[in-house]
C-alpha cells in the first residue's frame, strides 16, 4: 500500500511535466518533421538488413544445418573447417583479385569511353546509349552470352579459327571473367565520368591550352585531378559491387575450373545448397568483415585525396 | 631542323586525324564490344537447335524465331515468371520510394544526434553486404521463407539505403522556406510532405526507381535464397533453370530467346526515360 502510494506520488509530477511539454513545448523540429515519418523505413531496415547481419555474428559459431534438428553452439569449428580445407584463403584471394581487376576494367573502360564520347554531339549521345546497353541486361544473361562467345565450341573460337579453352584456365579465366564484369558495368562508370568531365570549367582547359599543354598534359594536370569525386564514387561502388558478385561467375564458369573462380557468394551458394547453413554463414561473416575492412579506409582515403588534388 | 618539322607535323595532323579517327574508333569499339554479343544473341535466338549447339555469328540457315520464342515461353514458364517478377519488383520499388522519402525528409530537416545516428545506420547498406544466409533463417521464423512478401521485405531492406541517401541529399537542397510558407497557411506535416516534398522529389524518384528496378529485376542470387525455384520463381531464376537443362542438351536457342524477352522491359524503360535516368544518375553521384 505504502509502496504504491509513494510510486504514485513520484509519477505524478513527471506526468504533469510531460503533459506540459506536449502542450506546445515540443521542439519545433519535432512538430514540423515528426519522427514517425522515418519510423517505417528504419523499422524495415533494422528488421531485414541489420538483424540478419547481427545474427550473422552468432550462427557461424553453431552447427546449424539441415542435418541437425536443433542449433547448438560449437565454437570455432566452422572456421577451423574452412581454414583447414583451404576454401577460406582461396575465397579471399579469388574475391579480392576479382574485385580489384573488375574495378580496374570497369573504370578503365568507363573513363576511356567518357573521353571518347565527351563532346555533346548527336553521334556521341547515340553511342553513349549503346555502351549503356549492357548495364540494362541482367548479369546472369550477360554471363550466358559470354559463355556462348568464349566456350571452346563458341563463337570467338569459330571466328578466329582457334581452339582456345578461354574459360578453362586456372590462371587467366578469373581475369577474363572480371573483364566481363567490367564490360557489364562500364556504361555506368562512363556516365559518371562524363558528368565529371562536364563539370570542369571551360576556361580552365582553355588556360591549359594557352600554356601550351598537349592533350596528355591537359589530362594529367587538369582533367584527372578534377575528376577526383567521380573516381571516388566509381572506384568505391565498383569494388564493393564486385565483391558481392555472383551472377556473372555462376553463368560463365560456375566457380571453375578447379574452383579457381569460386568467389565468396559462389561458395556460399554451393555450401548452402548442401545444407551446411552455418558454414555458409561463416563465409558470409568473413565477407562482411572484409568489405568493412576495405570500404572504410577506402572511402576515407579517396575523400582525402579529393581534397588534396 | 628535321626534328622540329616532324614535331610540328604531328602537332597539326594529329587533331585532323583524330577528327576522323575518333568516330571510326567509336564505331569499331561499339561494333566489337556491344554489336558482336548483341548479334550473337539475336541470331542464335532464331536458329534451330541443331545450328545453335555450337554458337557462332553466322545467320541461321533455317529461321525459326517464332518457334524458339514460343518454346522459351512454355518451357521457361515465362508468363508465370513475368508475373512473379512484377509482383515482387513493383511493390519493392514503391516501398523503397515511399518509406525512403519519409525517412529522408526527417533526416534532411532535423539535426539532433539521434537523427544523424539513424541516418548513418540506414545508409550503411550502401556499402555493407546483406547477410543472405541469416536472412533465410529469419524469414523461416517469420513464416516468410519462399514467399513474395519475404522477398519484397528483403529487397526493400537492401535498397532503402540507396534511396534514403539520394533523397536526403536532394531534400537538403530544397529551401526550407517552401515548407514554411505552407505551414503558415496551416498545412499539417502529412500534407506538406505529400503536396510539397514528394512532387519536388520527382527527379530523384525517377533515378531511384530505375536503379532499384534494374537491380531487383535482374537479381538472381538473393531470389535463389529467399524464393527458391518453386512457384514464386522470378524471370532470372527461370532463365537459370532453362540454362540448367544445358547439361543434357545444348539449348542456346532457347536461352537467348529468353534473354531477349527478359531484357526488353528494361531497355524499353530506358528508352522512354533516358534523359531523366542519365541526369539522375550523374547528379547523384558527383557532388
From TrEMBL, chain A:
Keywords: Cell membrane, Membrane, Transmembrane, Transmembrane helix, Transport
SUPFAM superfamilies: MetI-like (SSF161098)
Keyword Transport appears in the UniProt entry: yes
ABC transmembrane type-1 domain boundaries: 92-298
Mode of membrane association: Multi-pass membrane protein
Subcellular localization(s) per the UniProt record: Cell membrane
Region ranges (Disordered): 1-23
Biological process annotations from GO: transmembrane transport
Membrane-traversing stretches: 35-55, 96-117, 129-150, 170-195, 226-246, 276-300
A matching Pfam family: BPD_transp_1
Compositional bias of kind Basic and acidic residues: 1-10
The UniProt record lists the keyword Cell membrane: yes
Domain of life: Bacteria
Any one GO CC term of the record: plasma membrane
Primary subcellular site in the record, as a coarse category: membrane
Signal peptide (UniProt feature, chain positions): none
PANTHER family, alphabetized: ABC TRANSPORTER PERMEASE PROTEIN, INNER MEMBRANE ABC TRANSPORTER PERMEASE PROTEIN YCJO
Homology family: Belongs to the binding-protein-dependent transport system permease family.
Protein known as: Bicyclomycin resistance protein
Lineage of the organism: Bacteria, Bacillati, Actinomycetota, Actinomycetes, Kitasatosporales
Automatic annotation (TrEMBL), chain B:
Lineage: superkingdom: Bacteria
Keywords: Cell membrane, Membrane, Transmembrane, Transmembrane helix, Transport
GO biological process: transmembrane transport
Annotated signal sequence range: none
ABC transmembrane type-1 domain: residues covered: 82-273
Protein's UniProt keywords contain Zinc: no
Cellular component annotations (GO), alphabetically ordered: plasma membrane
Pfam families given in the database record: BPD_transp_1 (PF00528)
Subcellular location: Cell membrane
Annotated TM spans: 24-42, 82-107, 114-137, 152-171, 192-217, 255-273
InterPro entries on file: MetI-like, MetI-like_sf
Bilayer topology annotation: Multi-pass membrane protein
Stated family: Belongs to the binding-protein-dependent transport system permease family.
Protein name according to UniProt: ABC transporter permease protein AmyC
Gene symbol of the encoding locus: amyC
Amino acid at each position: 500500500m505504502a509502496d504504491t502510494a509513494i510510486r504514485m506520488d513520484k509519477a505524478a509530477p513527471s506526468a504533469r511535466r510531460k503533459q506540459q511539454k506536449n502542450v506546445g513545448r515540443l521542439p519545433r523540429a519535432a512538430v514540423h518533421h515528426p519522427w514517425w515519418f522515418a519510423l517505417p523505413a528504419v523499422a524495415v531496415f533494422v528488421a531485414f538488413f541489420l538483424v540478419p547481419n547481427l545474427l550473422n555474428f552468432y550462427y557461424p559459431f553453431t552447427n546449424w544445418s539441415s542435418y541437425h534438428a536443433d542449433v547448438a553452439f560449437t565454437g570455432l569449428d566452422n572456421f577451423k573447417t574452412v581454414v583447414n580445407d583451404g576454401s577460406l584463403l582461396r575465397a579471399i584471394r579469388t574475391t579480392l583479385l576479382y574485385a580489384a581487376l573488375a574495378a580496374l576494367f570497369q573504370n578503365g573502360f568507363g573513363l576511356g569511353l567518357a573521353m571518347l564520347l565527351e563532346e555533346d554531339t548527336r553521334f556521341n549521345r547515340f553511342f553513349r546509349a549503346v555502351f549503356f546497353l549492357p548495364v540494362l541486361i541482367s548479369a546472369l544473361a550477360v554471363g550466358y552470352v559470354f559463355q556462348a562467345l568464349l566456350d571452346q565450341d563458341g563463337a570467338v573460337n569459330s571466328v578466329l579459327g582457334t581452339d582456345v579453352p578461354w574459360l578453362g584456365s586456372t590462371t587467366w579465366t578469373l581475369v577474363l571473367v572480371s573483364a566481363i564484369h567490367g564490360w557489364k558495368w562500364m556504361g555506368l562508370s562512363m556516365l559518371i565520368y562524363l558528368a565529371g568531365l562536364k563539370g570542369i570549367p571551360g576556361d580552365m582547359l582553355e588556360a591549359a591550352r594557352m600554356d601550351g599543354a598537349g592533350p596528355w598534359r591537359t589530362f594529367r594536370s587538369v582533367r584527372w585531378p578534377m575528376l577526383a569525386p567521380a573516381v571516388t564514387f566509381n572506384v568505391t561502388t565498383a569494388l564493393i559491387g564486385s565483391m558481392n558478385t555472383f551472377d556473372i561467375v555462376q553463368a560463365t564458369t560456375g566457380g571453375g575450373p578447379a574452383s579457381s573462380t569460386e568467389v565468396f557468394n559462389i561458395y556460399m551458394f554451393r555450401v548452402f545448397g548442401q545444407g551446411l547453413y552455418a558454414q555458409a554463414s561463416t563465409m558470409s561473416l568473413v565477407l562482411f568483415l572484409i568489405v568493412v575492412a576495405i570500404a572504410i579506409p577506402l572511402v576515407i582515403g579517396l575523400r582525402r585525396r579529393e581534397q588534396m588534388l | 631542323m628535321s626534328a622540329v618539322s616532324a614535331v610540328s607535323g604531328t602537332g597539326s595532323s594529329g587533331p585532323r586525324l583524330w577528327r576522323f579517327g575518333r568516330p571510326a574508333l567509336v564505331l569499331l569499339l561499339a561494333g566489337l564490344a556491344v554489336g558482336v554479343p548483341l548479334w550473337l544473341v539475336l541470331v542464335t535466338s532464331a536458329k534451330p537447335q541443331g545450328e545453335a549447339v555450337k554458337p557462332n555469328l553466322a545467320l541461321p540457315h533455317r529461321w525459326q524465331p517464332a518457334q524458339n520464342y514460343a518454346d522459351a515461353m512454355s518451357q521457361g514458364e515465362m508468363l508465370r515468371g513475368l508475373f512473379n517478377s512484377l509482383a515482387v519488383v513493383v511493390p519493392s520499388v514503391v516501398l523503397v520510394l515511399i518509406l525512403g522519402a519519409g525517412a529522408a525528409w526527417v533526416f534532411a530537416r532535423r539535426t539532433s544526434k539521434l537523427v544523424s545516428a539513424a541516418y548513418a545506420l540506414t545508409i550503411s547498406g550502401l556499402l555493407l553486404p546483406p547477410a543472405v544466409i541469416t536472412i533465410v533463417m529469419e524469414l523461416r521464423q517469420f513464416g516468410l521463407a519462399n514467399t513474395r512478401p519475404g522477398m519484397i521485405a528483403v529487397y526493400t531492406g537492401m535498397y532503402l539505403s540507396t534511396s534514403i541517401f539520394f533523397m536526403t541529399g536532394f531534400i537538403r537542397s530544397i529551401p526550407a522556406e517552401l515548407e514554411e510558407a505552407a505551414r503558415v497557411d496551416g498545412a499539417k506535416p502529412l500534407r506538406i510532405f505529400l503536396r510539397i516534398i514528394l512532387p519536388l522529389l520527382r527527379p530523384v524518384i525517377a533515378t531511384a526507381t530505375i536503379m532499384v528496378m534494374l537491380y531487383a529485376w535482374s537479381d538472381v542470387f538473393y531470389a535463389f535464397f529467399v524464393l527458391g525455384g518453386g512457384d514464386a520463381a522470378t524471370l532470372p531464376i527461370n532463365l537459370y533453370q532453362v540454362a540448367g537443362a544445358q547439361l543434357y542438351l545444348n539449348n542456346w536457342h532457347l536461352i537467348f530467346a529468353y534473354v531477349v524477352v527478359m531484357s526488353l522491359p528494361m531497355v524499353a524503360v530506358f528508352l522512354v526515360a533516358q534523359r531523366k535516368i542519365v541526369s539522375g544518375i550523374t547528379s547523384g553521384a558527383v557532388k
